[in-house]
């Protein structure tokens, strides 16, 4: 098994090297993945979840996983995925965390 992969409750969470460096630079050892609801003209749109540094305001609304010293909170309203990869996008001041393998099917 890949040492960067952690199996928890049937969910594999992979945090890339770039995302780990981003968290280390920000001095954070926690992140959370939350559902985003976008409503356009009465029609909710499916979007990938947001990934934020730190702890959520209501941790009881999240599943908690540990990966290589990083606590990952996963929104209970999101469908559990068999595999989830957390990476970064952007450069410099616009760099942010993201779920890189989230697939939306219409």
Known CATH architecture? Sandwich
What kind of assembly state do the chains in view correspond to?
A: single chain
How large a portion of the residues is in β-strands, by DSSP E?
Answer: 35-45%
Instruction: Output the strand order for the largest sheet.
Output: 1-2-9-10
Give the topology string: H per helix, E per strand: EEHEEEEEEEE
Q: What coarse outline follows from CA principal-axis ratios?
A: globular
Radius of gyration: 14 Å
Query: Count the helices. How many?
Result: 1
CATH superfamily: HesB-like domain
Largest β sheet strand count, sense and barrel closure = 4 strands, mixed
**For the residues shown, what is the average pLDDT?**
83
Roughly what percent helix?
A: under 10%
The structural class is mainly beta
Tally of discrete structural domains: 1
CATH class identity: Mainly Beta
Low-pLDDT stretches are 1-8
Number of strands: 10
Organism: Desulfosporosinus lacus DSM 15449
Protein name: Fe-S cluster assembly iron-binding protein IscA
InterPro entries: CC/Se_fam
Task: Provide an overview of this structure.
It contains one helix and ten strands. 8% of the residues lie in helices and 44% in strands. The chain has 106 residues and is mostly beta strands. The longest helix is centred in the first third of the chain and has 9 residues, at 17-25. Strands 1-2-9-10 form a four-stranded mixed beta sheet. It has a four-stranded mixed beta sheet with strand order 6-3-8-7, with no helix packed on it. A two-stranded antiparallel ribbon has the order 4-5. The protein has a single domain (5-99), classed as Hypothetical Protein Aq_1857, Chain: A (Sandwich), CATH 2.60.300. It is globular and about 40 Å long. A hairpin with a 6-residue loop joins strand 9 and strand 10. It has one helix at 17-25, and strands spanning 5-8, 11-15, 30-34, 38-40, 43-45, 50-53, 62-67, 70-75, 83-89, 96-99.
């Amino acid at each position: 098994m890949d040492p960067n992969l952690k199996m928890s409750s049937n969910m594999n969470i992979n945090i890339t090297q770039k995302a780990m460096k981003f968290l280390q630079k920000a001095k954070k050892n926690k992140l959370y993945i939350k559902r985003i609801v976008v409503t356009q003209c009465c029609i909710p749109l499916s979007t990938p979840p947001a990934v934020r540094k730190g702890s959520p305001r209501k941790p009881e609304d999240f599943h908690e996983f540990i990966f290589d010293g990083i606590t990952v909170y996963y929104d209970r309203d999101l469908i559990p995925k068999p595999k989830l990869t957390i990476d970064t996008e952007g450069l410099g001041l616009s760099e942010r965390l993201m779920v890189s393998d989230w697939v939306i099917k219409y």
